[in-house]
Amino acid sequence: MSVKLTIMDQMSEIAREHGKILAPLRDDLVLLDSGLDSLGFAVLVARLEDRLGVDPFTASEDALFPVTFGDFVKVYENGAR
Amino acid sequence: MARARPQSLRQRIGDGSGLFWDRAAHAAITDLAGGTSLGGRLHELTRKSVAIATGSQLTTALALIELDGVARRITILPPDAQPAHFAALFAGAAIDAVVVDRDTPTHPAFALPVRVTATAEIVATEHLPAASLETEWVLLTSGTTGVPKMVVHSLDGLTAPIGAGRRLDGAVVWGTFYDIRRYGGLQILLRAAIGGASLVLSSADEPIAEHLVRLARHGVTHLSGTPSHWRRALMSPAIGNISPRYVRLSGEIADQAILDSLHATFPEAAVGHAYASTEAGVAFEVNDGLAGIPAGFFEEVRDGVALKVEDGSLRIRSPRTASRYVGSDAVLADADGFVDTGDILELRGDRYVFAGRRGGIINIGGLKVHPEEIEAVINRHPQVRMSLVRPKASPITGSIVIADVVLKSGGESGEVKSELLKLCRDALPRHKVPAAISFVAALDVASSGKLARRQG
Known about the structure:
- The complex is a heterodimer.
- By secondary structure, chain A is mainly alpha-helical.
- Chain A is built from 4 helices and no strands.
- Chain A has helices at residues 3-17, 38-52, 56-59, 69-79.
- The radius of gyration of chain A is 12 Å and the shape is globular.
- By secondary structure, chain B is of the alpha/beta class.
- Chain B folds into 2 domains: 19-347, ANL, N-terminal domain (Rossmann fold), CATH 3.40.50.12780; 361-439, 2-Layer Sandwich (GMP Synthetase, Chain A, domain 3).
- Chain B is built from 9 helices and 27 strands.
- In chain B, helix 6 (227-234) crosses helix 7.
- Chain B starts with 18 loop residues before the first strand and ends in a 17-residue tail after the last strand.
């Protein structure tokens, strides 16, 4: 599964677990409008570390968190290389 | 006649614009000098032990200013207070009056003979009762399982840190991501009220983008929140709307990454992190842009605050700490007056850095979690032999919880994992549900016979 599909998969699973409704995951979707809250993203980053073997936010010196879904995927695509 | 005190909070309202906004309404708090938001019934609360059960933060702010010096005791119920605990809290604090507003949920505990409704509207009056009492301010802790502890502060103690920190000139508009019914938010309310500043109040169900736009519209200059609040704000494109001059973090450990992010986002702003807790009060502020505490802070008493590390944890003696608990025999400070924060410090070079909590308490976005509570739920599953819940560092919420589980032989791990998650989701609030469950062959048990919990 591609990095992007893994992320989409995990986001919909976490949304379901947290009783949230996930917005359609377009690249320009603002993450905070996706339906997941801070806790949801915290769980997502932890699960992705499990699946992809990387937590790019903790690993990187550049700690700025992405704003859109597309940016988020890019951070992982770059990190997973 | 009670002991005279210098000035009540109402008398200490500073000169200035002093507008307080919430999402729906605003008020000029200087109007409280000759007005009331309590429908002419403040005198009924004289010498009472009053629960503040208001729903709106604006009516809460006004009621608190009015009640100081008039009520014998003010117990502030935070928005996440559990109705199941109301009876115990009301008995513990000997509450005999309650202030509500139209947002207060219905609960039998609030059906007291003296029940005053607060509004966001200040009506001029010449009949304000004398404010001569040294009111006890009671705040609830967030860290405990079961009924929260009730922590007694005085107005003098609560306001002692004000002015000790960094001063910035010019008109000040405070904003806070905190709820003012928590210690961190109350600090900002008091700073704004006494400093003659304006204040933009938060609202629990307000999307962060709208909150940031509202902060920008009112020209926020000073903004405070936990590192988790700030991480969430930095994820919003609306962060670009605000340009605070002072950025303050407290309530959780500020790591270097969040400090650097805030510097990068607000290059002109002073960024400081404060150490504060409901029990210990504000202990100190660090304004050099670096995580951790300069070792020099431990070498001298600064602004009346003495710090030390004993048995690994930070201890604080200060006029800003709470004085005691009500409704509990628990002891707040040791014989020398030091409060044990339970935060473990390690000296690295010339700074102390935080290395977790004693007893393994995990801080998730400002909410404290006892791992034992989650382990107890996991251990209910018939296939589980033992489990260990531990924190994992998270770039979003500081920490999240994960669980290591030892299954009884023959356990079927695939199904058990989803059963365990369901068990936790059914029994626990969302932030206590493990983000990940791993099955392990064994867990370390310390010589005490207890599970070995790593600090940090």
